[in-house]
Design a protein that fits this description.
Blueprint: E1 24-29, H1 35-44, E2 48-51, H2 52-59, H3 63-73, H4 94-101, H5 105-133, E3 139-142, H6 146-149, E4 157-162, H7 165-176, H8 180-188, H9 193-199, E5 202-205, H10 210-226, H11 241-247, E6 253-254
Parallel strand pairs: 1-3, 1-4, 2-3, 4-5, 5-6
Helix pairs in contact: 2-5, 3-5
Length: 256
Amino acid sequence: MMPSPSLDHPPRNRDPWKHGAVPVLGLIGGIGAGKSVAARMLAERGAAVIDADAVGHELLTDPTIRARIVERSGPGVLETGDGSTRRPNPAISRRALGAVVFADPAALRDLEAILHPAMRERFRREIDRVACEGRAPCIVLDAAVLLEAGWHDLCDHVVYVDAPRDERLRRVAAARGWTVSMLEARERSQWPADRKRCRADWILGNDGDLDRLGRELDRLVARLRSMDAPVEPRSHHETGPHDAASASRPGAARTS
């Protein structure tokens, strides 16, 4: 198997990109690794970011989707499901729905079967719109379950944001009040981290040094801008310590 390239020499993709003149990056990462931080920093650099969570939350208000979810999971997922308030067409409680689906793999699969096709269509339309405008240096599809849902086929490259597990746990405990068991429950609903890393084209380390992460993102955007030029493979002596380590395994190149 061919070794993976480094950020300095990423894989040559088709030209034009899948959706025209603008490349699409699928952004994934371990829970609490800082994927949303990386997405925000890419937006600051001109990228058009599609937030899969926001799209999914918006679709919960669609009457047809709402009705299907209530039919599957019961009225307890509604904000008025406890009967404490009475108003017409109560919204779905994301907290209540999450408690149901993360405790029941079958319920999670059913929810995904309801939401994911509609989410994919929203992504496709937004990607086509931004690509047609041609002003952004790249489009970022920020989606935790990009690979699991099969949305990576909308993307030209996949970027994985990585951080040590202890640091990820510290972050989710501070930001969301999660315990170890809560993090593990969420992780069980996704592919293992090693499997995701192997499917990524680039790995961005995020140990909390935002300046360093910013520099890596600058390099990434610059490389995307220049990838219409031929990329010559490097000889072994040009490979740095990180690149040598990452090139020894297939599927991804660590950038920091």
